[in-house]
From TrEMBL:
Stretch forming the signal peptide: none
Gene3D superfamilies hit by this protein: VC0802-like
Residue stretches making up the A9CJY8-like N-terminal domain: 13-55
Name of the protein in question: ACT domain-containing protein
Domain CASTOR ACT: 61-121
InterPro entries tied to this protein: A9CJY8-like_N, ACT-like_dom_sf, CASTOR_ACT_dom, CASTOR_mTORC1, UCP008459
Pfam family, one: ACT_7
PANTHER family: CASTOR ACT DOMAIN-CONTAINING PROTEIN, CHROMOSOME 1, WHOLE GENOME SHOTGUN SEQUENCE
Amino acid sequence: MPHKLLIRLVDAEYAITRLNIGSSMPEWLPGPGFWTVSSSREEMTLVCRAARVPSSVQSSLGWRCFRVEQHFAFDVPGVLASVLRPLSDAGVGVFANSTFSTDYIFVAGSDLDKAVQALKDHGHELTT
């Protein structure tokens, strides 16, 4: 398991948005920064910078994003756990997303200071 990761705090506020299943991808979703669409039988979940989300859309605002800067093969165990465990131990809730190359971990803005301290205490290096 990786013991020390380089983790970037992304300089933007994010929103986690819910749309009804079968909705088309909105034109405001793509743009700068991380964004993603997940779909299940129950709903579509969109994540993007909060500034792009119309106020009429059901959203949870004020999320901050951490990005794991290293890239690991899919079969390397414990990468995401090494970030989630210290956050959980500190009482910080998360919303996580992974891409082909890395992981993105979102925390409520009100928990940002606690999250940063927990990650540093666990030996991770944080950058902006």
